[in-house]
Amino acid sequence: MRLTVRAGKDAPTYAVYAAVAERLEGVEVSVPLTLSFEGRVSLGFSQKGEAGALCLDFMKGPLAHRLRHGGATETVVKAVRGRHDLRKDGPLYVFDATAGLGRESMLLSLAGFSVTSFERHPVVWSLLRDALNRAAAEGETRLPELRPCGTFLEQGGERPQVIYYDPMFPEREKSAQVKKDMQYFHALIGPDEDVAEYLEAALNLARTKVVVKRPVSAPPLTPAGTGPSYSLSGGACRFDCYVL
What we know:
Elements: E1 4-6, H1 14-19, H2 21-25, E2 33-36, E3 42-45, H3 61-70, H4 75-81, H5 86-89, E4 93-96, H6 103-110, E5 114-117, H7 122-137, E6 145-146, E7 162-165, H8 180-188, H9 195-205, E8 209-215, E9 230-234, E10 237-243
Parallel strand pairs: 1-2, 4-5, 4-7, 5-6, 7-8
Antiparallel strand pairs: 2-3, 8-10, 9-10
């Protein structure tokens, strides 16, 4: 079935919609979903009785608190930074290859890194673009640069020092308690099928390191038979670091 898009040319957020309009109209979903551009961009289940539409906000709520108080203690920040000293070595240029809901991109930006984010799914990109626009309007300056909807495979120009890659994990068998945002993700996207291709491309593009997020119990990815140089545990996940 097709995604339902609710928007009009007079909606305040229509400019965001217009940037990916054709791609949004063709999105297939496994359950009825509606993407709304009336006010804030939000995604919700279309069935009667389903509540809790997904709308990103980096400036309010628990996520905002985590973003502003996690800082250097976040495992993803430690994994990406490695031994790089911002004061001595200067800015650290990072690609977030799969920005998703933007949490890691925001954490890395707030940690002082120069972050360029990529997201290829037009629905997820629209949610993220809207949240970043609102954060900028509220005065936040430490934001990642979100490229037009697409992938880092199309990137030209300066190569990043580090690429952060967070492929979509397969859905767990016992998924009743999976967070609402991940329920939307699985209904929209499902697991990534081109992980090996993406990782190989990342390894060829990054200058110093590629960091891959994996479930803590999953085996490491081994492109060309080579595993990660080291890993950092982050609770239910771990961060495999491929040093180049």
